[in-house]
Amino acid sequence: MPDQPVIYSASLLMPVSGPAIHDGAILVREGRIESVGAISDLERDNPAAEVRHFPRHTIIPGAVNAHAHLGFRHGDAPEGGSFSNWLAGLIVRLPEKEAWTAEAARTSAREAIEAGTTFMAESSPYGECLPQLAESGMAGTVYAEFFPGDYEGASPEEISNSIVQKVSELRKGLPERVDCQISVHSPYTVDPESSRLAARRARDLGWGLAVHVSESPEEVEFVRDGTGGLTDIFGSNGWGGTGLSPVRYAESIELLAPGTIAAHLATAVSEEDIEVLARTGAAAAHCPRSNEFLNCGVSPVPLMMERGVRVGMGTDGLWSSPSMNLFEETLFAVKLHGFDGATGLELATLGGAGALGIGNETGSLENGKWADLAVVDVLPASGDPAREALEAAAGGGVAATVAGGRLIYNRADS
Ligand SMILES: [Zn+2]
């Protein structure tokens, strides 16, 4: 039996792709938006629909988190200071972390949902957080990271075959709208040939690719000169010191393409690097709070957007970021770059969807898209209603979250 249609309505509806609608509503059938308009019109035309009305609220699209890690928890992050210090602290704690990764992933996912997130691009070693994303109710892609150091004596061909095989297995039996693809973790953890082969295989299979690129001063030094704090951690692994910027290096090993989401791009990203991103079609995930915590600089996001690079927002994980609230991350970016509210709200939603190549499926409230939305406890009164909605969502004001037409969080019930 087909699902009964549902009308979600509120005092204000901000579709992001079009003008705000006072006393606005969407009609949802089979998880997708069938129409958008005034409450009175939708109720009149669909008398059989169940109505879920939020009288003192604003409905916005659900947050699209373009770069996150679920498997970390609050309160015991390694010391920051410098990126290589932090990473060394993280690596030391990997064995004890194993015991609580699943629980941390559940909690992180819950926190994201309670902050209005409906789609998450998650990266975790060998896709270890896929079960928790799949059971969370959010839609999303888990990008399985692989580390050639784990494959003693194997060739790059064997390593890339192995991760493709692993991801192919993980893709079986997933819920609708949950997917698994590959991440080439970073220029300093994955050798160039394994990176290149894994990226090629991913493209051949029609999969996306997630990478960390130009995140830290240490990474820039490693790729360019083959020296610095990351060399101390990973030893002289033989492929640093290319003389290139991390973006140019990533291009040279074929990581940059339209299906690639490149996280951070925080340190020393030049105009030439931005040209490379624009030309190759790679998209960016902006994680400004993590970048600040690890002293990694500020990503030149306004210039990237001006040059046509697709940009979304990412929270990163709880060991480098204070929360999984993507709207809070975005408000931080709005203040950092001096964006207006509409630009911020778009970055958090449709921008992220576009960066991940799913802009036709989610990110705005439009006919035919999945009904992915957040109900926010705010009635904007100023000249910048998008900013007010963003501030409310950033500050714990999400009253309900709907993904694929399903109410996955309702504060009233909890
Ligand atoms: Zn990351």
Written description of the protein model:
This protein has 414 residues and is of the alpha/beta class. The chain folds into two domains: 6-62 and 363-413, Urease, subunit C, domain 1; 63-355, TIM Barrel. 36% of the residues lie in helices and 23% in strands. It contains 16 helices and 15 strands. The strands form two sheets. An eight-stranded parallel sheet has the order 5-6-7-8-9-10-11-12, sandwiched between helices. A seven-stranded mixed sheet has the order 3-2-1-4-13-14-15, with helices on one face. β6 (117-125), α5 (130-136) and β7 form a beta-alpha-beta unit. α4 packs parallel to α5 and α14 packs across α15. The longest helix has 15 residues, at 156-170. The model has no long low-confidence stretch (mean pLDDT 96). It binds zinc ion (ZN).
Write the layout of secondary structure elements.
Elements: E1 6-13, E2 21-29, E3 32-38, H1 39-45, E4 50-61, E5 63-68, H2 83-92, H3 94-97, H4 101-114, E6 117-125, H5 130-136, E7 139-145, H6 156-170, E8 178-184, H7 192-204, E9 209-213, H8 217-225, H9 229-234, H10 246-252, E10 260-264, H11 271-280, E11 283-286, H12 288-293, H13 301-306, E12 311-313, H14 326-337, H15 341-355, E13 373-376, H16 385-394, E14 398-403, E15 406-410
Parallel strand pairs: 1-4, 5-6, 6-7, 7-8, 8-9, 9-10, 10-11, 11-12
Antiparallel strand pairs: 1-2, 2-3, 4-13, 13-14, 14-15
Helix pairs in contact: 4-5, 6-7, 14-15, 14-16, 15-16
The chain binds zinc ion.
Task: Describe what is shown at a glance.
With 414 residues, this protein is α/β, with parallel strands linked by helices. It is 36% helix and 23% strand.
